[in-house]
Design a protein that fits this description.
Layout (H helix, E strand, L loop, with lengths): L1 E9 L2 E10 L5 E5 L6 H8 L7 E6 L2 E2 L3 H9 E4 L10 H11 L4 H14 L15 H13 L5 E5 L7 H16 L4 E5 L3 H7 L2 E6 L2 E7 H11 L9 E8 L4 E7 L2 E6 L4 E6 L6 E3 L9 E13 L2 E7 L3 E7 H6 L7 E6 L5 E2 L1
Parallel strand pairs: 3-8, 3-9, 6-7, 7-8
Antiparallel strand pairs: 1-2, 1-4, 4-5, 9-10, 11-12, 11-14, 12-13, 14-20, 15-19, 16-17, 16-19, 17-18
Helix pairs in contact: 3-4, 3-5, 4-5, 5-6
Length: 349
């Protein structure tokens, strides 16, 4: 798909500002960016759900419009962040698109079975779909999309507000569709840690414009260095990894700091550490965690109901704690603290 100089206005608000993008056949592309950056609008235009104010869209070399729009909608499927589930069984939800296309019942049954197996909902066929948990409903919506075997699969925040197990199932499903079925996948997401392992390439949207484009690790690193105000981009480090006898990797991230991550890797890596996975304490903890660093708080900032601390420990790390914990430990700028985090908390790209 080729997008050329797309503009989308909603009244006086410009959601997309002259966006040009090439989506290669068979790739998985991550679309990162803060709320209001234009990620969902971009996907809706790519799906043929909305028309741009100006600009051109080409799919497989043919400009989208008129008959081309109908063809795009047939070959493309979008899964929305706010899942729409029909008030019927899981089976009928997943089978809906196939039934509309007039496939024989035995073929529908086989395809629905395969799709539910893929999203780990085997045996859920007769359950009322609206009585499922939010994570299970999201998997039903994904199964309803992939059962159509689209050429282009568009996913809007597919792992938002989901537990880690459900998010992992969805990420694995995306990998399978891309690698085994050859599906082109575009994912709009805040989840740089999970989707960063799924996608080969990424763009970063800010105020309706593409401000970075390239490999996932390069885009995240460049944006984090610019301090674009995207909180999920804290704790991104590029370093050199060497395998250890313990089945882990020791990574030199500069500043005299080495961290240990799960899995054996050698060479240049990009390490991502979620701020929420870093434990802050005033004394070293009695813990099996592989990483314990001593540092000093250099910045304290509120982030909704939580507090974000920047700690200088050779490199600057960001940790997230509750306001109550901040008061209990009597922490402030200049306080000496220890950072503790597990090797399994570090995501390597």
């Amino acid at each position: 798909m080729s997008l050329r100089d797309l503009v989308k206005d909603y009244g006086e608000v410009r959601a997309l500002d002259h966006v040009s993008l090439e989506v290669e056949d068979g790739e998985t592309l991550a679309v990162f960016g803060p709320n209001g950056a234009g990620k969902t609008t971009l996907l809706r235009i790519m799906a043929g759900i909305e028309a741009p104010t100006s600009g051109r869209i080409y799919y497989r070399g043919v400009e989208v419009g008129g008959k081309g729009l109908a063809e795009l909608r047939r070959r493309c499927t979008m899964v929305f962040q706010r899942t729409v589930i029909f008030n019927t069984t899981v089976y009928k939800n997943v089978a809906y698109g196939l039934a509309v296309r007039g496939l024989p019942q035995n073929e529908v049954a086989e395809k629905v079975k395969d799709a539910l197996n893929l999203v780990k909902l085997k045996g859920y066929e007769r359950r009322p779909a609206r009585r499922l948990s939010g994570g299970e409903q999201q998997r039903v919506a994904l199964a309803r999309a992939i059962v159509l075997e689209p050429e282009l699969l568009l996913l809007d925040e597919p792992t938002a507000n989901l537990d880690p197990e459900t998010a992992s199932i969805i990420e694995e499903t995306i990998r399978y569709m891309n690698r085994e079925k050859g599906t082109t996948v575009v994912v709009a997401t805040h989840n740089v840690f999970g989707m960063g392992k799924v996608a080969e390439r990424a763009i970063f949207l800010m105020n309706g414009r593409i401000v970075e484009e390239g490999s996932v690790s390069d885009v995240l690193l460049r944006v984090s260095l610019k301090d674009a105000g995207f909180s999920m981009l804290d704790n991104i480090f590029v370093g050199w990894a060497e395998p250890t006898p313990n089945g882990t990797s020791a990574i030199d991230i500069g500043g005299g700091v080495k961290i240990e991550a799960s899995g054996k890797r050698r060479g240049r890596v990009t390490a991502l550490i979620p701020p929420i996975d870093i434990i802050i304490s005033k004394k070293p903890l009695d813990s099996s965690a592989r990483n314990v660093l001593k540092g000093r708080i250099v910045e304290v900032s509120e982030a909704g109901s939580t507090v974000r601390l920047k700690v200088e420990a050779g490199r600057v790390f960001t940790a997230q704690i509750t306001e109550a914990s901040l008061k209990e430990m009597k922490l402030n700028v200049g306080s000496e603290v220890y950072l503790t985090f597990k090797a399994s908390s570090i995501r390597l790209l």
